[in-house]
Amino acid sequence: MLGFLQRPVVVTADINLNVVALTAVGLLSRLWQLSYPRAVVFDEVYYGQYISFYMKRIFFLDGSGPPFGHMLLALGGYLGGFDGNFLWNRIGAEYSTNVPVWSLRLLPALAGALSVPMAYQIVWELGFSHCAAVGAALLILIENSLITQSRLMLLESVLIFFNLLAVLSYLKFSNSQKHRPFSPSWWFWLMLTGVACSCAVGTKYVGVFTYLLVLGVAAAHAWHLIGDQTLSNVRVLCHLLARAVALLVIPVLVYLLFFYVHLLLLCRSGPHDQIMSSAFQASLEGGLARITQGQPLEVAYGSQVTLKNVFGQPVPCWLHSHQSTYPMIYENGRGSSHQQQVTCYPFKDVNNWWIVKDPGRHELVVNNPPRPVRHGDIVQLVHGMTTRLLNTHDVAAPLSPHSQEVSCYIDYNVSMPAQNLWRLDIVNRESDTDVWKTILSEVRFVHVNTSAILKLSGAPLPDWGFRQLEVVGEKLSRGYHGSTVWNVEEHRYGRSQEQKERELELRSPAQMDASRNLSFMARFSELQWRMLTVRSDDSEHKYSSTPLDWVTLDTSIAYWLHPRTSAQIHLLGNIVIWASASLATLVYALLFVWYLLRRRRRVCDLPEGCWLRWALAGALCAGGWAVNYVPFFLMEKTLFLYHYLPALAFQILLLPVVLEHVSGRLCRSQLQRSFFGALVVAWFASACHVSNTLRPLTYGDRSLSPSELKALRWKDSWDILIRKY
Amino acid sequence: MITRVPRSSWDETHFGKMGSYYINRTFFFDVHPPLGKMLVGLAGYLSGYDGTFLFQKPGDKYEHHSYLGMRGFCAFLGALLIPFAYLTVLELSQSLPAALLTAALLTFDTGCLTLSQYILLDPILMFFIMAAMLSMVKYNSCANRPFSAPWWLWLSLTGVNLAGALGVKFVGLFIILQVGWNTLSDLWHLFGDLSLSMVTVGKHLTARVLCLIVLPLALYTATYAVHFMVLNKSGPGDGFFSSAFQARLSGNNLHNASIPEHLAYGSVITVKSARMAVGYLHSHGHLYPEGIGAHQQQVTTYLHKDYNNLWIIKKHNTNSDLLDPSLPVEFVRHGDIIRLEHKETSRNLHSHYHEAPLTRKHYQVTGYGINGTGDSNDFWRIEVVNRKFGNRIKVLRSRIRLIHLVTGCVLGSSGKVLPKWGWEQLEVTCTPYLKETLNSIWNVEDHINPKLPNISLDVLQPSFPEIMLEAHMVMIRGNSGLKPKDNEFTSKPWHWPINYQGLRFSGINDTDFRVYLLGNPVVWWLNLLSIALYLLSGSIFAVAVQRGARLPAEVEGLSQVLLQGGGQLLLGWMIHYFPFFLMGRILYFHHYFPAMLFSSMLTGLLWDTLLRLCAWSLASFSLAGHVHALGILSLLLGIAYSFYLFHPLAYGMVGPLAQDPRSPMAGLRWLESWDF
After folding, report:
1. Labelling B550: which of A376, A441, B224, B624 has CA 20 to 30 A away?
2. Are strands B380-384 and B400-404 parallel, antiparallel or unpaired?
3. Mean pLDDT of all residues in B221-250
4. Closest chain A CA to residue B359
5. In angstroms, how far apart are the furthest CA atoms of chain B?
6. Chain A residues close to B486, C-beta within 8 Å
């Protein structure tokens, strides 16, 4: 019990001074003059607006990545006491005094700084020497592009940090596998692998490639474990289960957690509301919620409603009608019914109100108690302001001639009878007797006479239709599609018998009480789906590039230019490191194939342990490079040089591994080894020199003269900005 | 049955038409390689079709035209799929019931049946894919007698069929991947066999390189040689190709061309983009819609030859008629400031600081001015890239750039397709980034100037490799240009294996005779179930082997069949299916059919193996021996019955649509998305 009384309490600390020193220089290089420049640099203009949204807790939708990265940046703002009041509209705009630039840039810079000691640890855990490990860390330290990217409010350094963390913790885990499975440290590193993976995915979607790589390596190791017949079946099962929980279940949970926090933080309505469904919007404070708050839930005969299209493409809009009629003859010579137009209108308007009417009765008011409308009921829809009934018939629609025209019926006495009965089809019903609910129910209107379905075709009508969107009756409906589905957004029980009163009532704002809540999973799945499908403007950019330009560093990005002098920040790589890293990858691939073929013929150049280390280093470093690079060839979005940086970080790790292998295995004599060592030192010195030469462009702290800038333009394709005086 | 629909159906309008082109020897362009259409053309030629049917739109009646040969040819190849699948499964499993089950699955599948009845590329493609698979499997089983006659035969047949598959459609690449993978693992195995000397391994390698790389490449190239030899008349495909290429075609205005050599003021010209498959600078009497830049006349690039491609080259400062014979000829020189006037509408090529319709970072290019009178935004500086011929500008040879004087931007084509208002022609922009790319380089193609003497130009005849390269570039661009349009229902790859939605082949209304391409749902859902079952049973066996479990001899044999034979078929299914998820082009249901063949073979093999395992594990019971036979028999009967139910889809149906409860097919509309 009281053992600590008998034995002294001893704390032994192993401090690897290498790690400490590397962390210190890493921090120094990334944090030095962090709040300079006090101006918006490049994509800070993009991420900054989301930070402001977080500070003001306003909902937004960003298709570029999951919320974890944005939230990290916002955390920096929160710690610095940022109030979100800054207009992020122009690169180069000076920050006002309320923007805590230092703390906003702190977290990415810390992530960048910690990548340096982590590189050391990874190479060491891979089983290579301290010398190689220090080399890897120093290369990460002096790589100009990584420095630039870490010192700003950008997410690449965070992504690289979590990528490396995932790999490092997996290595720690697999190294403790041999000696101490199921020990606390074994569990810790295993769990950390899973958490780091989901943080990487949560920062940017491309993090998923590193996750897959780690999963692949873990699967290969697990497969060997299955083949290990010294372990009992139960033991193997425990191992597999532990891995499945840590690497599959935990990442999913953590990823959901990001969204949970995200939705918890963003509780107010904002400029991106329109893209979301009515139910989602109603779950936010203000905006639609203020309007719909307290609406009656169940739609009844006599209800006044606005109907929003669920698909909402090209823009979200509401079913609408107005006094104007379809032109007798269209431009292309086809005829119409000349009845009142029915359209879809993207703005709130009194003409968006419709009244649900029971075909058997005349009143347009809600009885007491209200009679709810159920799935399968036949209804008529009365346009509130004109009291005409929604109608469709066998007349070709104005822009989609294979569909039926939808109109509000006017009786011209031309043997064209009214066909205004619609069957209500609740798409997301739970039972066949479900009641039509405001906001929650997604409904289709099936025409009774022709079984056409009310649909938004999305085509804008010509001038006679005021450029509003065309609504048609779709005869041949091909399965479920959002454009045929509508939901009630605003809703109230109609009280006025007379048309004049009713018009007044329609113009008055909706009232009443009770709020509705969407479950977290429903909100998550909707938000995630919209984020993945929201169309970003994929136009080209002055500094966009193709993946082929990256390996050879044939492109650069001007991040910022001092308003008066020619001091500037430019995303440029250390060309020596880039070239030698690519070369190392090539050498690795050739050597690997060579060894593999020789082993197949039973010629073992490397002892078994050495070969396994060599293969694992390749799988993680060269593999990490490949999975973070190759997929970009298939992507259609606008690409920039900084997309290559995660791949580059892995490639740099491979460099000392290959160098150590060459010196240790391929240099036969001591003389060769010394000579190779001298070469490596010379090469490293040149890398340092290049890094130092490009430093003014990396930090942007020193204004260079035009001739100096011209001298730095080593490649024609580098667009270094030179002021003309 | 192939005469039941005496009208051209669905894509027959394309491929039948292209068969006709071969018979008429007119040049055309298509996104697929030529072999399939050449075979269709050949079949038509041999069966007496004269190539005069127009194939204008689906539903046209064939009347007296002899189309039977072409349909018969495709149907014959489609029918051969069944014996091929039978033999493949028999070879892989050494089990007759498995092979029979596979054959039944394919025979009774309405989808395969429908697809083989018409003039389409798919039966030809599937024929080559299955033939390649069969010969690969056959040659694998000859592995113990290397370099024997059958070994060589099957190896080279594999190569021939690979060339055939690739020559019909580019998706033939997938079967090449599969054969490649098989060959690599085969070589890897041989290489690890220390009883073979390096020389023997080298021989093996050489044999495969010869038969699987050199031979198919030679055959594939040969199909192009035949293609270009047969099609020597100018036709609808000319404009897709470069000026030099067109000079080969008789009837084209560049064939044996004699045109004025140097560009002069007053000449009427067409301007062609140097980028492949972009076409001519074009304008027409339609305006950019309101809200998209300035409300002025559209300027686009257009791939076809047209009067609207003609431009008059004028001096920037005078508007006099330069063709007045009294005036001296004045040549256009490098660096001159010019004005390009559109001949049909008399508007000037114009640009200004409005953003371009699609490429927002560029400036809009429009037609502006009345009868040639515009403003200073109509002035362009003409520059020759890599000047070699002095200051004058040579027709066809000089590569020119047009630089807008006021904004300093360069005229270029972005290669993006404009929406409906632009008639789906390609966007023309003025790009402020002066990087020299093919997008912004043009050459003058037609040149009319009565004041200049015509000189017979020996246009540089392109060599055969150049033609091949160009043809491929154009096809690749054409393929990637097939993007789904906004708001269009498109078929998604995940729809396919679950048989979510079919394709209407012919007939739409309830009075028409309708044919609907839809897989037999029983077969397809069985296939889907089998893939899941295979993954389950396969991984159980694999784990058992990895754990070193000792299996009885009989089970051991079955697990080998399951893991190796089944593995190959599963790989085939995956290779023929998953790449579609990555494709940006528009996809159709029928793209799944090659994968479906593989999954049917897997189904046959799997159920036979599983039933045998079942019979083995029940061996202690007296009836155990019948479990296998009964299982196979009931599967066969079930499939045959489902075919009886669904055969009207393939053989045609009349009467009301299935949505209508009165229709005889109403009960068969198991999914709401089926619209037959």
Report:
1. B624
2. antiparallel
3. 81
4. A539
5. 111
6. 313-314, 458
Rg from Cα positions in chain B: 30
Give residue A515's pLDDT.
45
Task: Tell me if A653 sits within 8 A of A136, measured CB to CB.
Answer: yes
Check if the beta carbon of residue A62 is closer than 8 Å to that of residue A36.
no
Which are the contacts of B454, defined by CB distance < 8 A and separation ≥ 6? B258, B259, B260
pLDDT (average), residues B540-545: 92
Searching chain A, which residue's CA lies closest to the CA of residue B659? A476
Nearest chain B CA: its distance from A445 CA (Å)? 16
Amino acid at B308: N
List the single range of A37-41, A240-244, A308-312 with lowest mean pLDDT: A308-312
With contact defined as beta carbons under 8 Å apart, do B602 and B566 qualify? yes
Q: What are phi and psi of B624, to 5 degrees?
A: -55, -40
Q: Write the DSSP string, A692-709.
A: HHTHHHHH--SPPPHHHH
Q: Which of B273, B297, B302 is nearest to B287 (CA)?
A: B297
Per-residue pLDDT of A212-244, as tens digits, reads 999 999 999 999 999 988 889 999 999 999 999
From residue A564, how far is each of A112, A561, B351 by CA, in Å? 30, 8, 33
The tokens for A227 are 């083949």
Burial of residue B304 (CB within 10 Å: 0-12, 13-18, 19+) is middle
SS3 sequence, B114-128? HHHCCCCCHHHHHHH
- Measured CA to CA, the distance from residue B296 to residue B375 in angstroms comes to 14
| d(C-alpha B177, C-alpha B576), whole Å | 10
What does each C-alpha distance from B539 to A167, A353, A559, B568 come to in angstroms? 28, 59, 52, 15
What is the average per-residue pLDDT within B624-640? 88
Please tell me the number of Cα atoms within 13 Å of A669 on its side-chain side: 3
- SS3 label, residue A38: coil
Bridge partners for B429 per DSSP: B364, B412
Question: Is 60 exceeded by the pLDDT of residue A510?
Answer: no
- Whether residue A37 has a cis bond before it, omega within 30° of 0: yes
Do A478 and B501 count as a contact with CB atoms less than 8 A apart?
yes
Q: Pick the residue from chain A with its C-alpha nearest to B360.
A: A539
pLDDT at B592 over 90: yes
Helix spans in B287-429 (H): none
Which residues of chain A have a CB within 8 Å of the CB of B361? 539-542
Residue A121 has pLDDT above 90, yes or no: yes
Residue B135: which region, alpha, beta or left (left: phi > 0; alpha: psi -120 to 50)? alpha
User: Percent of chain A, pLDDT > 90?
Assistant: 44
CB contact at 8 A, A247 and A197: yes
Distance CA B542, CA A336 (A): 68
Please judge whether B359 and A539 are an interchain contact, meaning their C-beta atoms are less than 8 angstroms apart. yes
Is the pTM of the predicted complex or chain greater than 0.90?
no
Å from B100 to nearest chain A CA? 36
User: Would you call B369 helix, strand, or coil by DSSP?
Assistant: coil
The average pLDDT across B44-65 equals: 78
Fill in the amino acid letter for B69. G
> At A652, is the secondary structure helix, strand, or coil?
helix
- Tell me the pLDDT of chain A averaged across its residues: 88
Question: For residue A343, what are the β-bridge partners?
Answer: A320, A470
The CA-based angle B120-B124-B126, given to 5 degrees, is 110
Nearest partner of A95 among A109, A81, A85, A106, judged by Cα: A85
Q: How far apart are CA A306 and CA A93, in angstroms?
A: 43
For residue A562, count CB atoms less than 10 angstroms from its CB and return exposed for 0-12, middle for 13-18, buried for 19 or more: middle
Contact residues on chain B for A537, CB-CB shorter than 8 A? 360
ipTM: 0.79
Task: For residue A7, count other CB atoms closer than 10 A to its CB.
Answer: 7
Structure tokens at B1: 């049955």
Bridge partners of B503, per DSSP, are B517
